[in-house]
Amino acid sequence: MSGPVRATLSGGRQHFQHGPIDLVIEAWGAPAEVAAAYEQAWRAFQPALETLVAELALLRAPVGSVVPLARGPVAQRMVAAVWRHRGVFVTPMAAVAGAVADEMLEALCAGRRLDKAYVNDGGDIALFLQPRRHFDAGIVAEPQRAALGATFRVRWQDPVRGIATSGWRGRSQSLGIADAVTVLAASAAQADAAATLVANALNVEHPAIRRLPAREVKEDSDLGERLVTVGVGLLPPEAIEAALDAGLREARSMQRRRLLAEAFLSLQGSARTTASPGLLRFTKSR
Amino acid sequence: MSNPLEVRDPEDALAPDCGAMEGDVIRCDACPVLCRIRKGQAGACDRYANVDGKLVRVDPLVVLQRTLDSGGQVVRFLEPGQPWDGALVSGANTFLTGIGATTTYPDYKPAPFIVSSRMQGVDMVTVVTEGIFSYCGLKVKIDTDRYVGPEQSAVRVGGEQIGHVTTAEYGSQMLALGGVRHLTGGTKKEGTVTCEALLRLANKEPVEVTIDGGATVVVQAGAAPVVNGAREERMRVGCGSATIGIFARQWHGHADEVIVVDDHITGVLTEHQAGRFLEMRPAGLRVRGRKSTPGRYFKVAEPGLGWGGTDITDPLSIVERIDPKIAWPGLRLLMVSTTGEDAEWFVLDEKLKPQQAPMPAPIRAVVDRIAENCEPALCTVLFMGGAGGSLRAGVTENPVRLTRSVKELVTRVTCGGAPVYVWPGGGITLMVDVLRMPERSFGYVPTPALVLPIEFTLPLARYQAMGGHVGRVVPLADALAHAQFEAQAWPAQNPWPVGA
C-alpha cells in the first residue's frame, strides 16, 4: 500500500497525491504564511483518504428520503452537497472531488493570513479570496483540445467559491454525453454535484453513442447497472442542439433553486451558457 | 546524488503491490480505496489496471535490454513486469527509453530521467523524456502503382482533411499527413481527427483514408496497402522501360515483340534501345500515348486500377495500329504489366490481327520472374517532428548547445531506442521509422499534439561542457531501482545507441 506523497511544482505550488486524489495547491501571501499554510494542508491531507474510504459504502449508496449520517468532514460535505438534488438519482460520490477540495482549502486557510488561494482537485477547484481579489479562469470546452472555450473572472463579491467540470470523458462516469459542463457555485462540492447532474442531463438518443452498464466499466461503480457513456461518435447538428437544450434546462432549473451560479455546457464544438449579463461574463474566445 | 523521482510525478515511482484475486476481480491495494478491478478495467485512479488477472501500472517505463552477443550466454536480469530486485545491473546492456518516462513539458524542470552508464570505459549520459510535438506529421510511402489520386489532393478521414498527396516516387505513392496546420490550424474537429489518425498510424494500427478525386486506401505501417478494396501484393519491378531493359535478353528468340504496360512509361521491346542492341527486327506495332525516346511512351492510357496502374483491362486497346508494311503474319507478341500480374500472349493471323494463344513455357517463366522480382508492397510510415523547442531545456540550460551537439553527431538522438535521421539545417527536425520503435510508443495530449519517447545520449564530459543538468544525473541502476518498468528485448535491427 502506498501512502500520500507530496511534491513541489514550479512557483512553489504543492502537489499532493494519494490513490485517486490529485491536488495542486497554490496560496498567495507573505512567504512564511504561505509556507505554514502548505504545511497544515499537508497534515490534513495525509489521513484524508483513509477517513473517506471508511465510509465508502454509505457514500456510494443513492440518496433517498433520509439524510445519510456521515461522520468524516469530507463525507459530510459530500452529503450536504447532494442532499438538495435528491429528487433525481444521485449518490454522495457525485461531489467527492469538490468536497475534498473544499476541505483542503479550509485546512490551508485556517488561522493563516492569505490574499487568495486555490485547491485544484483534478479540475474541481475550491477558491479563497480576500476583498478586492479575484481569479481569472478559462474553460476548456473540449477536453481533447486545450483551446479555451470561454474565460471568466471570479471576483471576491461574486457568490462563487467553487468551480467544477464534468463530462463523459473524465475519470468519473457520466450518464450523459457532454464534452464538458463547467459549473460555478458557492463551494467546490456544490459545483461538483451540479456539474455531474447537468452533465447527466445533457443527453440524447443516437446510434453514434455507445453506452455500457457502469459496472462493466468499473466494477465498484456507484452507478450500478445504469448505462454510462463510453463513446460518442460525430452527431448531427439537431442531436447536438437537442442534447445541449436538455442540459441547459437542467442548469437553469438548478440556477433558480440556487444550486449553481452559472454553467457552461459544450458538445462537439457547440456551447450553451446560463450566464446573464452583469454577473459572470463568459467571453467566447477561439 | 539527487533522486530522479523528484522530477517525476511522484506516484510514478511506486511499484504496485500485488493485488489480491477474488475470482477474475483484483482487489487493488495500491491505495486505501482498495478498488475491485475486473479484467480489462482500470481502478478509480486510472493508474492501475487488471490486465489478464495481473495488476499493472497502466504506463510503465519501457526498458530495452540487449543480450550479450559474445560468450553465448544470455543473462536476463529483468523479468518483464517485475521491479528490479537489486541485483547488479550491467548498464552496457540496458537502455532506458522515454516510453512511460512522462514529460516535464514545458520543461521548466530537467527531464524525468537523466541516467549515466559506462560504455567501453567512457561515462555516458542518456537524457530520457517524452516529447510533446505540435509540429509533427507522418510521411507515408505506399508501394503501389495504382492510382491513389492527383498530387496536392486532400487526404481525408471521416470527411476531415488530415493531409495531402505529395510526390509520386519510384513504385510508390507518397502522402504527407498531419502537420501543425491540420493539428491546430484548422477547425477543432479537423485537429482531433488528424491527431487520432496520426496516433493510430504511428502505433502501427490501420487507418482508412479517402483521397479527393482518387482512391480509398487502407494504410498500416508494415502491411500491404489496400487500394479501393484491392490488396496490393507487390511493387512493380520497375517502369515499363526498365522492365524491358532487365528482361530483353531473356525474351530474345522467344517473342518478336514485347509491350510492357505501365502508367508511367510503357516499353516496346523492338523500338527500345535494348531491342536495337539485340538487333531485333522492328515489329510495326504503334502504341498510343506520347513518345519519349525510342520504345518509351508516356500516357498510353489514364491512371487506374487496371494493367500496370493504368485504367485498361484490354491490353490491345493501347495498340493504335499495326503497320502492314512492317508486321508479318505469325508475329509473336507478349503484353505484360510491370508486376507480371497481368500478361497475355498473341500471335498475328493472316490479316495481321492479334489472336490470343497459349503462352509458351519460356515466356511464362520470364513473366513469373517479373513477379518474383517485385518486392512485397508495403506501407511505411516515418514520423517527422521538431524537437528543437522547449524540450531541449529539459536536457541543458543552454538549448542551442544541444542542437549543435546533435548536428556534430556528438549527441545521439533516439526515439524509443530507434535511430533517427536529423534533417540538416536549423533546429532538431527528426525522422524515425515507426516500425523500429517499440509497441505503443506514441501517445497524445489534447492540444492536440503527439507524445513520443526521445532520448539524447552523449559522453558525460560533453554533457557537462554543454551546460547539462549534471546534478540530476543518476546511475542507471538507481533509476531502475525506483521506477516501475517493463523490460523488452532490444530490436536486433537497431544499432546500440550508447558508446562510440
Short overview:
The complex is a heterodimer of chains A (286) and B (500). Chain A is of the alpha+beta class.
What's the structural blueprint in terms of helices and strands?
The complex is a heterodimer of chains A (286) and B (500).
Chain A: E1 5-8, E2 14-18, E3 21-29, H1 31-45, H2 48-53, H3 56-59, H4 73-83, H5 96-109, E4 114-121, E5 124-129, E6 134-140, E7 148-155, E8 162-166, E9 180-185, H6 188-201, E10 209-213, H7 214-217, E11 227-232, H8 237-256, E12 262-267, E13 270-273, E14 283-284
Antiparallel strand pairs in A: 1-2, 2-3, 3-4, 4-5, 5-8, 6-7, 7-14, 8-9, 9-12, 10-11, 12-13
Helix pairs in contact in A: 1-5, 4-5, 4-6, 5-6, 6-8
Chain B: E1 20-22, E2 25-27, E3 36-38, E4 48-51, E5 54-57, E6 61-65, E7 94-96, E8 113-119, E9 122-133, E10 136-143, E11 154-157, E12 160-169, E13 172-178, H1 180-183, H2 188-202, E14 207-211, E15 216-219, E16 226-227, E17 230-231, H3 240-251, E18 257-261, E19 265-268, H4 273-277, E20 285-287, E21 290-291, E22 296-298, E23 319-322, E24 332-337, E25 343-348, E26 354-356, H5 361-373, E27 379-386, H6 399-407, E28 412-415, E29 418-419, E30 421-422, E31 429-433, E32 443-445, E33 449-459, H7 460-465, E34 474-475, H8 476-482, E35 485-489
Parallel strand pairs in B: 6-35, 8-34, 18-24
Antiparallel strand pairs in B: 1-2, 2-3, 4-5, 6-7, 8-9, 9-33, 10-13, 10-27, 11-12, 11-14, 12-13, 14-15, 15-16, 16-17, 18-19, 19-22, 20-23, 21-22, 24-25, 25-26, 27-31, 28-29, 28-33, 30-31, 32-33
Number of DSSP-assigned strands of chain B: 35
Helical proportion of chain A? 25-40%
Largest sheet of chain A: 9 strands, antiparallel
Q: By helix and strand content of chain B, what is the structural category?
A: alpha+beta
Q: Which geometry of chain B do the CA atoms define?
A: elongated
Q: How far apart lie the N and C ends of chain A?
A: 45 Å
Query: How would a crystallographer describe the biggest sheet of chain B?
Result: 11 strands, antiparallel
The number of distinct helices of chain A, counting runs of at least 4 residues, comes to 8
The sequence of SSEs of chain A as H and E is EEEHHHHHEEEEEEHEHEHEEE
Percent range of helical residues of chain B: 10-25%
The stretches of 5 or more residues of chain A where confidence is low (pLDDT under 50) are: none
Count of discrete domains of chain A: 1
Give the strand line-up of the largest sheet of chain B.
Answer: 17-16-15-14-11-12-13-10-27-31-30
Q: In percent, how much strand structure appears in the residues of chain A?
A: 25-35%
CATH hierarchy, class of chain A: Alpha Beta
Mean pLDDT of chain B: 85
Q: Kindly report the average pLDDT value of chain A.
A: 88
